[in-house]
Amino acid sequence: MSIYILMGVSGVGKTTLGKSLAKHLQTPFYDADDFHSEKNIQKMSKGFPLNDEDRESWLENIKNAMQSWEDSGGAVLACSALKEKYRQHLKQSGVSITWIYLYESFETISHRLEQRSGHYFKAALLNSQFETLEPPKYGLHIRVDDTAEKTMHKIMKKLELPEIGLIGLGVMGKSLALNMASKQIPIAVYNREVQGSEEGVARDFANSHPDHQIPWFDDLQVFVKSLPKPRNIFLMVNAGKAVDSVIQQLIPHLDKGDLIIDGGNSHYTDTQRRAKKLKEKEILFLGTGVSGGEEGALKGPSIMPGGDRKAYDRVGNVLEAIAAKDHQENPCCTYIGPGASGHFVKMLHNGIEYGEMQLIAEFYQLLRFRLHYQPEQIADLFLDWNKDMKSYLLSISVEILRFQEKNELLLDKILDAAGQKGTGSWSSIAALNLGVPFDTITTAVMARNISAEKELRLTFAEIFKHTEHFLEISEEELFKAYKLASLINHATGFELLRAASSEYNWQLNFSEIARIWTNGCIIKSGLMQQLSELLKDSAGQHVLSLEAFREMIETNKSSLAFVVGKSVEAENPLPVASAALNYFWNLTSATTSANMIQAQRDYFGAHTYERTDGKRGEFHHTNWSKS
């Protein structure tokens, strides 16, 4: 194995980066300063630079040691090696050397040395080092103008050592692996071998992309051993039992400080459990939401990592490199918070997505079958709406409405029974557990459930036939209704985030969450861009209370009520739009019907109630029955 020598003037970071590289390579680290004679150390401590005669014995000591290092499996050495003749002396050892030249400006290094304490090298000697320095014309040249973590990332890329290993080469896994490889992030991949169903997956993937030279494995133990320590392993396997199974298989091969990143759609409670289990074994864990589908994973998704901050600091540069970019070219990836916050935020993202998809579908249905618009007309209308909304989901709906198969609209050939993977219902359950109103998203989940009852719906459609109604609703009214319902759907989502942040002490940054949802994900929109700015200074406010939306809400609320009312009259369901309207009327009502509920609860269960003419927190019970 090669001896890796990090060279350069004092203060350039040879020791810090050398120790980090040694960890990655699982080899010993040595500092050339430890091979100086006491005489040399005393000379430098008094402010006198070493001459070539002083360095002869020093270089000889290092050269002899290097021969033994190679025999024992290699090493990393931090050594100034400023002159070419010093480097030639070390080359005489006959061992394989990989030179890594670290460099920065005199001013920057001088400032660093002035901040350093407890080291015998004096900043005043830096002049002599720069005068002596003869940069090599070979090896890796690395400018140390960034954090140690990011500089380490550059070194790993140059050395082409796997900085991260990815398990699971399904659609998303393959796309993420190619995304990393295209960003010059050294990556190794593994996929299990299952006879008859998953054979040669990793091999075929690597062979079909020869330009990237991705190391592939079908043996888990060999794959893990190929990764430099501390290891970073990205899981892209199906949520649920598969994640637990892979983690269980990995644990015997991992060491303290290794990191597992779960990039699937795991339930946040599973993430909490896994994080606790791995922490006991001193293995780091990041529950990481990834949104954007196959195309997003390949070109740049929105990434939501939560868990150990130390873990994010280690791989954040990788995640940020593969993420989509916002309008200011910042990565759509941020540290979400501790615990299971990353997967919770991804779950809520999908909840908002459910609401937005159902809302668009409802307005399509109303336009097509009650207002008798042709699909091409609806596409044109949605395209016009999207000049304002800038919504990804509206944009793809336009394309769907125009997609022909054999000169017929493909949409008309798709069965009207919506599937789901659970994240929408998970967010509804979380809202129930946290006591948060979640009208639109829960209704969207229920709408999918009822759509799945196709046979039952056909039966009832024959029994209870709909009456044809003539409807007249302007496009302006429709758009105002849609726009307000969409805002309300987003507002309920952010309220759940606020409740979870408080309950679990995650200290979520709502502005940052909105920002990373401005690109790369399914719910990216102009509204999300607006929220990313508005929530910077209004993190504690309900979205509907923000001054920026006040005029729009006042203008559009009557349109939402009108459209919902007319649609109900016409026997046409608008479940999410109706839920949005009911949520809004409830939220803006000074008095609700809940006093009747409290009286009923007290009547049959003596659950007590508070009084309007008493103090909050004082509870009363009445014997209601006259018998």
Describe the 3D structure:
The protein is of the alpha/beta class and 627 residues long. It folds into 4 domains: 3-157, Rossmann fold (3-Layer(aba) Sandwich); 162-339, NAD(P)-binding Rossmann-like Domain (Rossmann fold, 3-Layer(aba) Sandwich), CATH 3.40.50; 351-587, N-(1-d-carboxylethyl)-l-norvaline Dehydrogenase, domain 2, CATH 1.10.1040; 591-627, 6-Phosphogluconate Dehydrogenase, domain 3 (Single alpha-helices involved in coiled-coils or other helix-helix interfaces), CATH 1.20.5. 53% of the residues lie in helices and 9% in strands. The chain is built from 26 helices and 14 strands. Strands 8-7-6-9-10-11-12 form a 7-stranded mixed sheet, sandwiched between helices. Strand 7, helix 9 (201-207) and strand 8 form a beta-alpha-beta unit. It starts with a strand and ends in a 22-residue tail after the last helix. InterPro entries: 6-PGluconate_DH-like_C_sf, 6PGD_dom2, 6PGDH_C, 6PGDH_Gnd/GntZ, 6PGDH_NADP-bd, 6PGdom_BS, NAD(P)-bd_dom_sf, P-loop_NTPase. Pathway: Carbohydrate degradation; pentose phosphate pathway; D-ribulose 5-phosphate from D-glucose 6-phosphate (oxidative stage): step 3/3; Carbohydrate acid metabolism. Keywords: ATP-binding, Gluconate utilization, Kinase, NADP, Nucleotide-binding, Oxidoreductase, Pentose shunt, Transferase. Pfam families: 6PGD (PF00393), NAD_binding_2 (PF03446), SKI (PF01202). It catalyses: 6-phospho-D-gluconate + NADP(+) = D-ribulose 5-phosphate + CO2 + NADPH; D-gluconate + ATP = 6-phospho-D-gluconate + ADP + H(+).
